[in-house]
Amino acid sequence: MPVLFTALDRLDRRGVDLKICLLLDSCHDASVQVAQAYAAHTVLPVIVEQIVQADPNAGRARHAAVRLGMVALAGPGLLLSTDADSVPDAGWLQAMVVGCRAAEVVAGRVVRTVTQAHAVQDRIEAYYDTLHALRRTLDPVSWEARATHHHASSANLGMSVDSYQALGGFLPLTHGEDGRLIDDATRAGLRVRRDAASVVYTSDRRVGRVALGFAGSLRALDRGDEAVEVAHPRDAIWQYRRHAIARAAFATGDFTALAMAIGLTDDHVLGVARDCSNAEAFAMRVVPTPPAGMRRVPLAVAEAEVSVLCAAMPPGRRAA
Predict the structure, then answer these.
(1) HEC profile for 261-274?
(2) Exposure string for 14-33, b = 16+ CB within 10 A, e = fewer
(3) Whether the Cβ atoms of residue 178 and residue 154 lie closer than 8 Å to each other
(4) What is the pLDDT of residues 276-297, one digit of tens each?
(5) Terminal CA-to-CA distance of the chain, rounded, Å?
(6) How many CB atoms lie within 10 A of CB 158?
(7) CA–CA separation, 132 vs 309, rounded Å?
(8) Looking at the predicted structure, is the pLDDT value of residue 115 above 70?
(9) Is 40:152 a contact under the CB 8 Å cutoff?
(10) Which backbone phi and psi does 159 adopt, to 5 degrees?
């Protein structure tokens, strides 16, 4: 936590009225005292609050933290989140402000601070970055950052108070609450920008409260408990191509080609369109899972497949 505080003091705050809210979740150490000591000496306004949960629940803790932020703002404004074991880059605040002008939700890049090297985790992250770059090659959107990434983590997340309230906030999930919120945002038609200019460095610690959290995933990889499987790139690409078709169909009102491409009737597709406020919501809601489902394949198989898919792209459209 002290490293986080040092990073917060070093943020480029030009033009930003920054308030810091520290939500301490069921801490049994000296975290409260450390946070209060920071609040007493920093020039920034700081609110410290502690909650106690009988069972670890990331979603409830995240929601409590955001509500604390909304109390501090007492009106409209931006809500930015990170973690106690994370270190925002000095330009994080400015990058988030820029990103939130282009989209309703900004998911920044999360970079592991490597104290224990792990080649497999590096490969997993590189694979999903490549897959997301392919997504934006096949289904470009105007609000996406020029330099993008695959992360969707509360360790680096920003949105307006209005957007958070419209989504109903983090659900009380023990894990995956951030990915779920971002999925809900796209299905609601909010623009989600994955912006690599917004950087937070996070701990690669192996000890964590949530069994299926990042620390637990790293522990499993360390032990080699099971073969590493990832999303099949061809299933993801099947969806990406049809997301692009759906956006075009929503703009023109001609849903025949889309209905054929996703195996639904024109009436079904039209019914979904009538319930959607914009093309983003429509694309995310109407495109189903691929005919073979969302398969999982060994990492090496997925890497080989995605390399073939990248090579098959026209030179001007190849993913970075």
Answers:
(1) HHCCCHHHHHHHHH
(2) eeeeebbbbbbbebeeebee
(3) yes
(4) 999 999 999 999 999 999 999 9
(5) 35
(6) 26
(7) 13
(8) no
(9) no
(10) -165, 170
In angstroms, the CA 246 to CA 14 distance is 41
Please check the confidence at residue 214 and state whether its pLDDT lies above 70. Answer: no
- Among 73, 74, 90, CA closest to 8: 90
pLDDT at 279: 98
Rounded CA separation 98/75 (Å): 20
Beta bridge partners of 111: 201
Report the greatest alpha carbon distance in the chain. 64
Least confident of 103-112, 208-217, 246-255, 281-290: 208-217
Confidence check: pLDDT of 65 > 80 = yes
Nearest to 130 by CA among 207, 250, 254, 230: 230
Measured CA angle at 92 (ends 91, 93), to 5 deg: 95
For the sheet with 157-160, list strands across it. Answer: 78-81, 157-160, 105-113, 192-203, 86-88
pLDDT above 70 covers a percentage of the chain that reads 90
Give the C-alpha separation, 52 to 44, whole Å: 26
CA distances from 280 to 160, 187, 277, 285 (A): 18, 7, 8, 9
C-beta neighbour count of 56 within 10 angstroms:
16
Report the alpha-carbon distance of residue 255 to residue 257 in Å, rounded: 6
**3 state DSSP class of 27:** coil
The residue written with tokens 């069972």 in the block is 55
Pull the structure tokens for residue 153. Answer: 């983590």
The dihedral sign for the CA sequence 129, 113, 213, 211:
positive
Task: Tell me, rounded to whole angstroms, the distance of Cα 195 from its chain centroid.
Answer: 10
Sign of the torsion formed by the C-alpha atoms of 178, 279, 164 and 102: positive
